[in-house]
Fold these 2 entries.
Entry 1:
Amino acid sequence: MTAKRRPGRYGLRFVALGYLAMLLLIPIGMISYRAFEHGFAAARSSVTTPDALHAFYMTIVIAVIAVVANTIFGVGCALLLVRSNFRGKALLNAIIDVPFAISPVVVGLSLLLLYGRTGWFGDVFLNNGIQILFAMPGMVLATIFVSLPFVVREVVPVLHEIGDEQEQAAETLGANWWQTFRRITLPAIRWGVAYGVVLTTARALGEFGAVAVVSGRISGQTETATLWVAREFGQFNTTGAYTASLVLALIAVATLLAMNLFKRKEAS
Amino acid sequence: MTPVAPGARAEAPPRPVAWPRLGGAALGRGLVTAYLSLIVLIPIAALVAQSIDGGLDGFWTAVTSPLAVSALKLTLISSAIVVAVNVVMGTAIAWVLVRDNFPGKAIVNSVIDLPFALPTIVAGITLLALYGTNSPVGIDIAFTRVGIVVALLFVTLPFVVRAVQPVLLELDQEMEEAAASLGAGPLTTFRRIIFPNLAPAILAGAALAFARAIGEFGSVLLISGNLPKTQVASLFIYAQIQSGNDTGAAAVSVTLLLIALVVLLVIGRLTHWTLRHDR
Amino acid sequence: MRTSFWKPENLASRTAGGGSRRRVGRLALVTALSVAVGVGVAACGSSSSDSGGPINLVAYSTPETVYDKQLIPAFQKTSEGDGAKFSTSFGPSGDQSRAVAAGQPADVVHLSIEPDMQNLVDAGLVDSNWDQNQYHGIVQDSVVVFVVRKGNPKNIQTWDDLIKPGVEVVTPNVFSSGGAKWNILAAYGAQIEEGKSPTQALAFLKSLLEHAVAQPGSAGDALTTFTSGKGDVLLSYESDAIEAQRAGEDVEYVIPDDTILIETPAATTTDASTQAQDFLKFLWTPQAQQLWADGGYRPVNKSVLDKNKDKFPDPPGLFTVNDPSIGGWEKANTDFFDPTNGSVAKIEENLGVSTG
């Protein structure tokens, strides 16, 4: 039986791996070649200009804010969805998925319409000298939007799985909700949370479309790494663009490793 | 990642428990609502308001302008192609990863998530470096519709694979062996035994891939070349924003969002139905 | 049996009457918290727009190098510019104008076409007399040229050569790029100058856009597309062509006999600091004009231009946007670039639809 299916199996293996190689591996290899085409020193100096370093710094700061905000929200929201019942729960559930269904450019446009000079809140903020668009807050709002669902969606199934017997037991023994959360719930969901955090980080680090609309591309100020890559690509600095791409790809690989680690921990 | 289509979640009815104790839930509900309003709902409300700024007529005119129609059409057709390829290749890859054994399988398995972790603009530059004008392998698909499809295939790769994989892992192989011992060929076994079991997962993965594909921006930005014939909806919206046509941009955005939500909802229901139908 | 513990009536009975008061309290807390979140988000964005802040320069994409490497350092060495700090933003002209109108901080704006400046006048951000100086608000000029591969393998010399079979053209997207609009006006005007009728000139535009193999978002992206190997000819600013040659790219350029004089406007916004106004004035000084010339841009200062005459040959059929063949920006913007009724929009629609 298995012997009979052998050729088919090899064929399928060949097709699947060939597809992956063409689509993923060879292109990534090409990027490293292009980055170091003119030597390691050229690659290094192309991404260590103050603007480039600041762009990476911006990316990290924005990602950290987005991750913290969405993790706190995500855990709370997941608890709400799993451990309580209320009117509008299905709606809440649906709204959380909206960021999956929306184009990043549209996210940027929404913020533009809301906080732009002629937007609903535009006057209020601008007249008080508060810059939302073309500054950090707008970019943070955009990034939080696109990376919102991940923690919720990772924690909900874990909460379902662990059930609430232990939580109830803790309460019977007189623990308050914070103690219950800290001692019982959190340890049980920690790998789910960690996995969600990794996904949120990956999404936040790579965000491009939404921040492209609201950043205003002020060099050394409101430019993230992805925006920097896009701009340098159009400015004869292809080495810089490829090298920064490679750095981002390496961060992506590190993210993958973290994902695998947490997935394994979650499973065990 | 573990993609889950909305509605596809098998939800155990929550039991009435006193958790967290008094005060928590109402406060929590308020905070969650406030956060979602600030981040998601109010911006979308502003978008919808702008799209009907010139009345429903204005909305309709904007959405039915020839360039908007061709952009939406191109988006839907290329996304449909991408989903079809993903259903076949994604299932094949999942199959190879679960049922096959070869050296390096663990690495291949983790590489699947790379398109998710890789910034989309990097994905675009990457594909352009290999399949662009200076292609070292002699394949030039830059600034063509084929290029757009390839970029979309890249970013949507994980969805079907990651949806099918866990189901395939849990699938009982005894059924297949039984079918085989009753004389069914591999194709019949796949069609009659395996596929019905995988269908809900494939559908869920396909829905997410479709939703992702119709909104994709970063990876297609550089590869499309912005020609009228390669302008997908997200690029059209971006061009409209840049030329100051906010209403046109908002109208197409709302259309795009509605399509994505409807697809996610319908497939969610469908998956639900298939699951129930099976059991 | 699904009973909701959190239903108000359940809550009220459990807390024996204390519920409603608590709920009000909670509601207040929720409101307070959401306000706090909003203020917190806002607070980290409050920027100092006082006179002590940097000069915000918002400009179109191509002069980035000249500003960063030449003009800004030179200004900082003058007495007016002593200690001036800059924060710069470069991108497609239309996009930059749109962003400033939506609230991006800007003291000095330098755009590639006048209508983008008009946007800011309409938004009340730039004074309507911005062009009331001896240079009409224009800081530097350029011309539309054909950038070709080294040795000009397809022997492209005239506009008609662009629409020969098999010639691939790269020009930026007209909806976002000011440079693209100059290209279109140059192509159209050249036809009129050569004695064609407006209908024939529009037909030429149509075949030209049919030959376009890419329409990147900005002039800068178009240049990268071309230098990476796509296309036989790039329609571009003369200044970009010069910069590309300097960067060691294997390209050369041809100035067609009939072409348009590109005039790029700059202005300060209504609430710009004195130092920002000084910077704008500095851009017209002979020193700065020479720096523009060194960067490949044609100076608007006559004497500086004359000194650099050999670098910038005058094509015999040079025309401006105000010549009768075009009829001024206002007319051109409606006739050609109106997103719904403009002739270029119509051509693009046909290209999108016919192949769709």
Entry 2:
Amino acid sequence: MDGIGQGAKVAFTLPIFGGIEITETIVIGWAIIVAVLLICLFLTKGLAKIPTKKRQIVAEMFVGFVNNMVESTMGKKWKHYAPYIATLLVYAIFGALVSLLGLRSMTADFNVPLTWALMTFILITYYKIRSGGVLGYFKGFTSPVFVMLPLNLLSEVATPLSMAFRMFGNISGGAVITALVYGALAAVSRLAHLAFQFSGLEFNALQLFIPAVLSIYFDLFSGCIQAYIFATLTMVYVSSAAEQEQ
Amino acid sequence: MVLAKVTEFLTIDPTTIILTLCNTLILFLVLKHFLFDKVNKVIDDRKNEIAESYKNADEAQRKAENLAAEYDEKIGMAKEEGAEIVRAATVKAQNRSDEIIADARAEAKSIVDNANDEIEREKKIAVNQIKDEITELAISAASAVAEKEIGKEDNERLIESFINSVGEQ
């Protein structure tokens, strides 16, 4: 099957700096930005103090959900983090759900979760240095005893890496399994003489409903839960980094 | 699609990382500017308005309670005042009626007294007249009997004393 064990396709190459290859991951990212922008514009059209439109209630529910999540996990003074957490949530969920449209999941490209994990790592480091100073930051690696230094360094690096790999593994694993199931179902269809050919296109009867059931888990559930986990971990790590040694 | 170059399944591509970073920041700005700022503003406005209207309602209720208490007090005072006025009026009326009755009594008494005096006087006058008439009568009768004048003065005195002695009986 096409796509199993393959990374993102190169969509086009920018003819500057000797050719910058833009993968489909980036193109899907742009499409999501445009879609989210349109949704936002639609939802916030005609906001009123007393809501009269359903779309305002949807917008307020989403904003309230994220605000509550940030406030309950990080505390009241971190409310300005809500848009960033919402960005992670929305981008990760949409990025995973584009697979329902037959596209390659954005988060199945390791570079995407890695980017977000690096952003979280930068935030963690920034808040650790801000709360403890540069000296306190480096001293923190030798606590409680100096011998712990390698372990502390390892766990510091492991935090973003595990976040990136967790999301990447789940989404891309789901994509691989879905592709494998499609392949297997095509083979079984052919064996059971349920495969039909229409001018070069193959139609396999067994591919009709069975993948949909699996898709509920691998695309919908897994995509949403990984986005939620990533956002929650970011909140927990960042707020605990800021509240250290105060 | 066949011609499209495909990247490795697990690869680190700085271009993708940088562009994803930019995309994430752009999406962040989109969500912040077009969703969170707007919706938060509306929610905050509504919260403020609700708080404001609650405050106003509390104030109005407090005012109303104050007014009610004030009015109660005023009504109580008015009632008391009314009762006082009625009592004063009653007392005044009582006094006045007493006065009037006393006046009336006094007047009636004086009228009665006057009448009595009048009666007494009339009686005296009448008695005197009768006395005079009797005297005349007696004189004429006596003169007719005696055919002779004793002398007017003597006669009169005589008769007078006679009548007096009669009247005193």
